[in-house]
Amino acid sequence: MSYLTLSFALIFVIIPLVLSKTLHLGLEKDTLVAAIRSIVQLLIVGYLLQYVFDAENILYILLMVLLIIGAATQNARKKGAAIKGITWKLVITFITIEVLTQGILLGLSITPATPQYIIPISGMIVGNSMVLSILFLNRFTSEVETHENETELILSLGGTPKQAIHRQLTDSIKASIIPTIESQKTIGLVQLPGMMSGQIIAGADPVQAVQFQLLILFLVMTSAIITSIMLGYLSYPTLFNQRMQMLVGKNNKV
Questions:
Q1: Strand, coil or helix: what is 222?
Q2: DSSP codes joined into one string, 143-180
């Protein structure tokens, strides 16, 4: 695909701009910014990856993975601003997911130890964990505020912070994981996943493309569950002080 051919794809940016303007939705600026950022960011990443792939240097691979984790953390931390130390909690969660998944993939020789495999898979896994983190934090902070009186009642009756927050925590974990599980139930019937579609378009054997896609789906499921559980259990203790009093909620803001 040439840049001239790619430029025709801008039609798909113009259409939402026109519709937003016509219906007075006020989304023109966000749509334009999103389009420009995606073009600039992807082009930069494309040239950067080409250099990293050619160099095949472990240091460059690590730097790219750290860049991915840093960007994901920066984006997700906004949803957990009320939780003390949320930045480091996200960093620890993403690093754990990365080490676990890549350790299994490389340790069992499921994928080669090359930047062509490590970086894209890391991006998909950490990106999925970022989305799950945002879903979890958004739901968890909402649950904490909604059930603040219930939580304080349990504490006043002698319950521990873990007992007081258990319902909100488990509900938030389940709510953030359900979309991943439900989407995987219809894979292949309702949609062809991006990685599989990309390989098929590039001329790969469809069966081989399916095998790689299944690998990613299983990794995504594991990362989703671990991300929500780990982030939840790292976050809830910081909602209470040493005297087991709530620090966040409708009436208590950090």
A1: helix
A2: HHHHTHHHHHHHHHTT--HHHHHHHHHHHHHHHHHHHH
Calculate helix-pair angle for 28-55, 115-146, nearest 10 degrees.
140
Q: Are 95 and 152 in contact (CB under 8 A)?
A: no
DSSP state, 191? B
pTM higher than 0.85: no
Residue with tokens 């904490």: 144
Closest by CA to 151, choosing from 226, 243, 249, 223, is 249
As a whole number of angstroms, the distance between CA 127 and CA 227 comes to: 11
- pLDDT on residue 100: 93
Question: Tokens 């579609």 appear where?
Answer: 197
pLDDT digits (tens, 9 = 90+) for 102-125: 999 999 988 888 888 899 899 989
Cβ-proximal residues to 90 (8 Å cutoff; 6+ apart), any chain: 72, 73, 76, 77, 80, 133, 231
Domain boundaries, the chain: 56-239
Question: Distance from CA of residue 153 to its chain's centroid?
Answer: 34
Give dist(CA 248, CA 242) in Å, integer: 14
